[in-house]
Amino acid sequence: MKVDQLIDLFREEFPRSSSELKHTWAVFWANFKIFLSYRTWVITETLSTVASIAMYFFMGLQVDANRFISAGYGDVTWLAFAIVGVSTANYLWMCISRISHSLQHEVSEGTLEPIVSSMIKLRSYIIGQSIRGFIVSSYFMVGTMLIGILVLKAPLIVTVETLLSFIVILVMMIVSYAGIGIMAAGIILVYKKGDPMTFLLASITEFLGGVLFPLNYLQSYPILYGLAWVMPYTYALDAARRVLLTGATLASPLVLYNFAVLVLFTLVFMPIGLRTFKWGMDRIRREGTVATY
Questions:
Q1: What is the DSSP letter of 111?
Q2: Which sequence spans correspond to the domains of the chain?
Q3: How many CB atoms lie within 10 A of CB 172?
Q4: With the C-alpha atoms ordered 204, 205, 209, 212, is the resulting torsion angle positive or negative?
Q5: Which of 76, 183, 249, 286 would you call most buried, defined as having the most Cβ atoms within 10 angstroms of its Cβ?
Q6: Residue 13 burial by CB count (10 A; 0-12/13-18/19+): exposed, middle or buried?
Q7: Ordered DSSP codes for 139-190
Q8: For the residues 109-117, what does the mean pLDDT come to?
Q9: 101 dihedral zone (left: phi>0; alpha: psi -120 to 50; beta)
Q10: Within 13 Å, how many C-alpha atoms sit on residue 143's CB side?
Q11: What is the CA radius of gyration of the chain?
Q12: Do 86 and 52 form a contact (C-beta atoms < 8 A)?
């Protein structure tokens, strides 16, 4: 799309039905091109990911694999167990934090006001930003999985059935947390800061979700163990591990149960997130603080 065509698109007084798709594509493509321009960052982050996986490999040499049998994932190595946890956790928070991070950047750069005053719908902006986050996050997640499987020989079960089941679980995991990301974006619109809350929630989720250790280790701490099972990620990670470590599919009872719980979390968090975002947008418009940082 040429620059002149893009400018004309945003100047429309009455957007056509097809304009929303073009707006979404324009937001995604603009941000994706910015991402591609940071070649040094991409290279360093890739090398950092490789170094992290190597670290997990050597850490796994010190872990007694027999302790994982009681977790219900079969006779697996700690490396395979950790790779599924780390890759899904990073994917989740890179996707979710993208919305709030982008809005905070727009506010600090003074570019949020032109976006709000244009005919582009905020949902087009959010969807465009989210797609960019999904693609970038997928790059690192797939890279982590491939290095683990091809280089370090992690025994993950990858078939057509398990791959499709894993993708469905992954999508449902993101959707179940999307309301939280939208909620954080609404708070940032008003208070201009909010990423610390997201990162704090990410740290707590990764700890209680059992990214690097089985949840049955927390059974001696009833409060922590109970809190672990009130988070969507716990169910998503359990389903992902059952799929990739044991060969289960979405039709398996335990995986299907986890999927149903994620749907329930989505029905709870999404309305709250949308309502919070609408509250934030209405407030900054009413107070005239759209361009305030």
A1: -
A2: 20-287
A3: 23
A4: negative
A5: 183
A6: exposed
A7: HHHHHHHHIIIIIS-------HHHHHHHHHHHHHHHHHHHHHHHHHHHHHHH
A8: 67
A9: alpha
A10: 20
A11: 21
A12: yes
DSSP per-residue letters across 258-278: HHHHHHHHHHHHHHHHHHHHH
Output the pTM of the full model: 0.79
Phi-psi region of 263 (alpha: psi -120 to 50; beta: other; left: phi over 0): alpha
Q: What is the mean pLDDT of residues 242-257?
A: 90
Tell me, what DSSP letter sits at residue 83? H
Place of tokens 């398996």: 252
CA distances to 18, 49, 193, 203 from 292, rounded to whole Å, are 32, 37, 12, 30
- Alpha-carbon distance of 50 to 55, in angstroms, equals 9
The pair of structure tokens assigned to 93 is: 């928070």
Query: Which of 141, 179, 172, 176 minimizes the C-alpha distance to 239?
Result: 172
Confidence of residue 3 (pLDDT cuts 50, 70, 90): low
**Residues in Cβ contact with 212 at an 8 Å cutoff, skipping those fewer than 6 apart:** 82, 85, 86
Tell me the C-alpha distance between 140 and 171, whole Å.
16
205: tokens are 């989720």
Q: Tokens for 50? A: 């490789």
Instruction: Please determine, for residue 258, whether its predicted confidence score (pLDDT) is greater than 90.
Output: yes
CA 139 to chain centre: 13
95 contacts 134 by C-beta, under 8 angstroms: yes
Q: How far apart are CA 185 and CA 284, in angstroms?
A: 13
Q: Is the dihedral of CA 271, 277, 278, 279 positive or negative?
A: positive
The average pLDDT across 255-279 equals: 89
Of 260, 267, 265, 259, nearest to 231 by C-alpha is 265
